[in-house]
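Order emerges. For instance:

***
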Amino acid sequence: MSRVAFDNARPVAESDPARTDIACFVGLARVTGTALPAAIVDWLEQHGWTDGPLARSTDPPFADIPIPIETYATFTSLFDPGGSASSYGTDYLATAVRSFFAQGGRRCYIVRMGDPVAPGDDSSC
């Protein structure tokens, strides 16, 4: 054995519909290119997001699909956290998610609608 590897990803737990520490954020964000963790892919499969009439791709850029996020670190591994000149327009969603977790939020769902528009983008697209 050349090394020992640990998988720290917990399975996504089902939630009580009466909880108030869960939110849904819909917005524009760039993806980092990181593949979804296996626990999130399993959750998407269990809830019918990978096959059937609601089928969506779980490969980046995974748009129009609810991604369950339980930590800000998971968010930043999948989406651009903003804060740099190259991440124009991603600050809004990242700031909202960071604030949600900072104020005690336990889980949120991110629905990425596409990439933000930068000032230098061509308007003919």
Q: What stands out?
A: The first helix runs from residue 38 to 46. Residues 9 and 101 are 18 Å apart (CA to CA).
